[in-house]
Each structure stands twice: as C-alpha cells, then as structure tokens.
Amino acid sequence: MSMTDEEFRAKLEKHFSLYRINLRTPIASQVGPNQWYRVDILLVNELGLFRRADIEPNGQVTIACDLYVPQAQGMTPFHEDEDWSLDIRPAPSFGEGRLSKEASTVPGFCSSGKGAFEYRIRSKHEQPTAGQRYLHIKPTQLVNFPQNANGNLQVILPLVIGPINIVPDLQQTDTHLPLELWKNQDMEMVYDGYRLFSTSMQPPVNIAIHEMWDSGIPGKIWDSALVMLDFMKNMIDLHPEYIDGKHTLDLSAGTGLLGLYVASMMASPNSTIKKGKITITELDEAVELIDKNLIINDFLNHRNPQCDMKTRSLLWGNSQEAASCGKADLIIASDVLYEAQFFQDLVKAFVDLSTENTRIYIGYKRRGFDEAEERYFWSLCEAHFNVKLLIFNGKENADDGLVPQMTLKTGVQLYRLTPK
C-alpha cells in the first residue's frame, strides 16, 4: 500500500533533523599569506538534500574557521596552529555565473543552503613554519535556523578540508572570486572532506573520518551513526565495563567511525576505558575506506599498546569470515537494515559472532521498510536473542539511561539484543 502525501512528508521530516557542512567547489591547495581566498560550502542532510523552508526567508548560519596542524605521520591528532592565524569575512553570493556586488551579512549561510566565506592567513611572528594545514569549518551562531524551532549548534556537523600548503612568497590573483572566475590559475585543487571527533582537549586526542559521498551507503556518516556515537559516549561514561578489556566489534562499519572512536577513547589520558580489542568489519569492497581512515588516524596504532585494533572483511552469513573476526563481547551495528533479502544472513552473523554473554546494540532508522518487514526481522532475531527497544528516559531497563535525546529528533531507534 502506498503512503499518503502526509505520511511521506512526515517520513521525510526525519531526514532533516541533522545537517552537514559540505564543500561546494574545490579550494586552492596552495595559499599565500595576507591574501583573501574564497570557500563555497553547502548545508545538506544525510541524503545530500536541503530544505529551503529551514532557512527562508531570514535564517542565518554564521561559521568560524580554524587552522589545524596535522601530524608528520598519518594526520591526527590535529593541534592548533602556533605560527599562523586566520581571519574570515562574508563573501558575495554567487549563482548562475553572477557574483553579487555586496557581500552577505555573515560568513556562512544567509537565507540559502548555499553559503560562502573568505579567509586569509597571517603570521603570528617573524619566522613562522610553513607547510600543510587544514581548515576546520564550524557553526558558531544560528538565527532562525531551523525556522520556527530552537536550533542548537549540534544540528550541524562541522567540516575539515585540506591539506592546504602555506607558501610564504606565493602571490596570486582572483583568489577571492569563485573558482570558475579565476584566470590563469594552474594548481592542484583540494576536494577531500573530513569529520573531526575529539576525545581529549589537553593533550589533544581527536580522530578525522574521511567521507566519500560518491561511493554510496558505506561512504558517509549517517544519522544513525551519529546517534550511536552519542550512545557509545554514554556507555563509556556510565558502563565502561561493557568495553574495557573486552572485544568490541563494529559490524558493517561504513567509515569506521564507531570503532575508531572507541580506540581514541582508549588513547585518551582521562578515559574510563584503557584497554581492549576492536574489530571493524565491512564488505571486502568497502574495507578500503576504513583502512584509509586507519592510516589517517595512525597514532591509534601506537598511542596505547593495550588497544588491539584491526579491520576484517565480513560477508554476513559467511561463517569462515566470522570466525576470522572472533567472538565479540560487544557488537555495535548502525544502519545495517536496508535489504530484507539479507535479514537471515545478518541474524546468522550475529549468532556466529556471539557468546552467551554478548551484548548487541543496533541503531535503526526506518527508511524503506514497512511494519511487516520490520516484524519479520525482529522475529528472526527473537529465535536466538532477547530483543529490547531502548527508550530515552525509559525506566524499564538500566540501558535506557544510555539513550541520547537525539533519538527523539532523528527518528533513530536503538535496540539491544542478548542471547537467550
């Protein structure tokens, strides 16, 4: 039975609770001091869409931009730049090949999901160190965004782009213009975007997650993963015994965010978890992105020798590949329900990876399934597991206290499975 227009709109609303800042056009890979450079950005949801009603007619998202210094090996943990400072200012809007005469009211987004700003780099002292830097673009103020709602900065995921190379004697023209209006500029451009997640400010411990939106489902961080991340933060605070010294398996991990975050917590000096084994799995063709994120966050392999982290190819239902992963104490699975034909294989993977004491947590956001298909999946699970829907502020189970408020806004549901 098809959905009514009202049902379709209500379903679509759940996808617009969280936004991301994305790069709209590439940026220059080399920059000179004291010159203005333009950056064009977008606001999009997990599907790459923007809802104009969220910002029209008078909404504003003001952004700030920081310079981060990468590590010599890998990329993270980033630290703040002691040699160069960064200024930003509003930029004129640009559309249909035309550049407006006046700059926008604020750097960022004004009444549109297409935004821009200009930045320049200035030295803090007489002998600054040049080389690679990254731009960290984050929201700092929301005005009438979303419209008719009390928006907070957590509804927008910041963006890290780079690397850019600071070249002290570089002189360029037209860099304050949109890329397509540049004249006679011949250089490599920067396309890559990352999401930054911190587990310690002093000393800095953070991980960068590279996204590849063009590679399909595994290539981006979906809303369910962000909700599961907050869930994991609560677990580490309230029930570190679920993870500390245990084997955590991030099933069909996509970008590898959740497993890498657990590893970064083990590398943080003030964390409640200090040791453990982490296995991050995906289909064979999707493991490459996770391995790339492991290289980006190479410090995780050296900071804590008591953290044993690895990636594994895992096709659901393949007992041999499951055996190479090993039995897990904790299985986290975000957005693994997307094809009903794979339900039986997924449940078999849960069984193959579990002991009698394993806890499985699933983050699920209804997209294409109807209630009958959902009931079928949970009935398959109930043949082997006790299934519990966890509720924000619920009173029935201690794990209800781990559920973040974000579940209410995003429509993401959190389930716990324990073997019968």
From TrEMBL:
Gene3D superfamilies: Vaccinia Virus protein VP39. It comes from Mucor saturninus. This is Methyltransferase-domain-containing protein. It comes from the Eukaryota. Pfam families: Methyltransf_16. InterPro entries: Methyltransf_16 (IPR019410), SAM-dependent_MTases_sf (IPR029063).
